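Dear Dr. H.,

I hope your travels went smoothly. While you were away I took the liberty of generating a structure for the chain from your last submission, since the lab meeting agenda had it listed for discussion. I wanted you to have the full record in hand beforehand rather than looking at slides cold. The sequence, exactly as received, is reproduced here:
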Amino acid sequence: MHGPASPGWLLVALCAATGAYCLLRMRSRDDEARRAAGGEALMGFGMAAMAVPAAAFTPPAWTWAAYAAVFGAAGLRALWAVARHGGHHLHHLVGAAAMVYMAVVMAGSPAHAHGASGPPAATGVLLLYFTGYVLLTGVRLLPVAAVAGGGSRATRWGDRATGWGDRPELARACRLSMGIAMLAMLAAM
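The corresponding predicted structure, in token form, is as follows:
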């Protein structure tokens, strides 16, 4: 996770920007979209904090336990959401579990050395999952033939046109960015 400074700062910027966009998506009129955006904002900011290069800031030892607790709670919330709503929340559960896993590995590494290695099987399974997720999400972003007359709606005063924060392609791009960032973080372990 805490590798060389330049890629580390790029990862921090990507995750923080994604987290900020997800905060904006929380203004959606759709309850399900708001719930998903909240979990994704937490994930984006958590990943940004974990990716800060060690040369800039070495977190105190208790930080890893705090990460594990926060993302453990997020994982429990995602588990509850999977039981109630299913769907996309399963990915939030896997993402929270990956964050807990990385925090535990970092806490257990000698002197909290960056670039510590976790159990290879768990890391490999998470790498396979996020690789598949990134590929599937990338394919979903490919343009499809536009439906005749299905362009953007004209906005008038009082019209409930979809805001830019509710656009599904932007949400998918956000998720793709975080999936790629998670792959980079897991690969660096």
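Two observations you may find useful: The two ends are 6 Å apart (CA to CA). The longest helix spans residues 62-85.

With kind regards,
E. W.
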